[in-house]
Amino acid sequence: MSTVTGVTSASSAADILSNTALAKAGFSKQTFLELLVTQLKNQDPLNPQDSSQFVSQLAQFSSLEQMANMNASMETVLETSVTNLIGKTATVSDNTNAAGYTTGVITGITYYADGPAVKINDTNYPFSDVQNIVQ
Known about the structure:
There is one protein chain. The protein has helices at 13-17, 20-24, 29-42, 51-83; strands at 89-93, 101-112, 115-120, 123-126, 130-134. By secondary structure, it is an alpha+beta fold. The protein has a five-stranded antiparallel beta sheet with strand order 4-3-2-1-5. Strand 2 and strand 3 (115-120) form a beta hairpin. The N and C termini lie far apart (70 Å).
């Protein structure tokens, strides 16, 4: 029986899914299902894998998918909330200022990989540096 490169009876789709390099490379639900079907097609008929392993893998994948969906929802809420701050006066931590903080009107929002930043007095400050917001 021929085997598929990279898929052996010792590896599981859940183990492969948890590999962050594959996740960053675009490992998707479709890829997971293809791996699962490939495992089923190429398993030894005289020594099949335990079906509970497949159920466990599907449960793990389902949990991962739910967490990803919740993360996307939380990002949407954060983006909406931050956007509503434009035009409001805020105080932010500022180590370059002698007082240790800066106060000004938020004139814009910039989204970086590590989160949003508010623009006050033509300077971007990470959202985590916001100390106070006045209506």
